[in-house]
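User: My advisor, Dr. K., asked me to get a structural model of this assembly before our group meeting. I'm new to this, so sorry if the format is off. These are the inputs:
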Amino acid sequence: MARKPLTKPRKHASQERSRATVDALIEATARILVREGFDKASTNRIAEVAGVSVGSLYQYFPGKDALVAAVIERHHQEIMQVVRAALAEIASQPVKKGVRRLVAAAIEAHRIDPKLHRVLAEQIPRTGRLENVEAFNRETYALFRTYLEGHSDEIRMVDLGLAAFVCGTSIEALTHTAVLHRSDMLSDEAVGKLVDETTRLVVGYLQ
Amino acid sequence: MARKPLTKPRKHASQERSRATVDALIEATARILVREGFDKASTNRIAEVAGVSVGSLYQYFPGKDALVAAVIERHHQEIMQVVRAALAEIASQPVKKGVRRLVAAAIEAHRIDPKLHRVLAEQIPRTGRLENVEAFNRETYALFRTYLEGHSDEIRMVDLGLAAFVCGTSIEALTHTAVLHRSDMLSDEAVGKLVDETTRLVVGYLQ
DNA sequence: GGAAAATAAGAGCCATCGCTCACATTCTAT
DNA sequence: ATAGAATGTGAGCGATGGCTCTTATTTTCC
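Assistant: The format is fine. Below is the predicted structure of the whole assembly, which you can bring to the meeting.
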């Protein structure tokens, strides 16, 4: 069988020009998702907004899904940076203070790009190659569990995996819902209240 | 202007035959969503699976969205029946017992048709006419808040709206995630543990 | 300077999808 | 029995979308 050098290289960029093209495509995808919604994000439109041709698009991405996946990946990296930083910071802090800081970080993370976060959560079908959204949550759980292990003397529970699941899921759900669906909870005062309540919920549960 | 009797009547069914058609269409939509996923649910395919022609489909539904909306509606009615029953039952029970019963009901509700629930949660773009998924949650919150108001003497908090938000969001997130993404938590034993923990989380927070 | 590799362009193929419409069949009521 | 309403049929139109392929331009390297 002969090779297919023409269609195959749909992969890496090496020159600077092409890296710019790749960036423009990802950025355009994100913009369209936010401004026009998922079903307007056709490959033709993405290329158009990126100021690039469809042909170029398919040089670097095997299809539409890959573009969306790249946007998700980028967004999750940003979020995880905030979360990891917070977890590192609280490693040696007592539970009450640590959880409080973590809740604040969760809100901060959701505020990085709420509109994009919302589209990703509500409009992207989690199917096929896009179902690894959970994998990202697993990392958070694992990290938080490690934190709990280092503070097991402050905690009444035995099953720290379960504890991490309960706390992690609650914190994520509360901050996610508040930031994305309750604009009435976004004043500084209301956010403070939310942090208070969530912290109380979690700390009360752990101790 | 002349009337357009041909295209207009796309609405109600009166004979029994047509009611069967409508049911078959909704049922077919649900089946396809579960077995093949959202993007396979084209109007042609739905009609085919329902054993009906596309033309008939458009006699009763203005479009694909309406079909999906009907499936969502039916599913939510089933869920709300369980939730409302539980809330009615606990109305005069103390918080600890009541919350426990409510958590069990939430799990029960998610178990009615987990596969469909998952598809609805993960694959249906919440856009346009389909964004009223939240309205359904609001009812639960309102009902739960009413319960809390009747037991305010057992509760430390002042802002019962906020309390209902925190508790409702947590219960929903925990039961949803456990049933749909943690098959390891579905043994009788694990479910019991989950109910215990969720109840403790919420009751500890309220009191 | 020039060949070859890398990158970009974009017209257009092909498949699919939502939906219509002209027509066929069945039901209801007189 | 039969008119007319209700219901059912399905080929196919128009639009759109994903993606390919040929051709053009730019960059690299000698």
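One thing worth pointing out at the meeting: The longest helix of chain B spans residues 64-90.

User: Perfect, thanks a lot.
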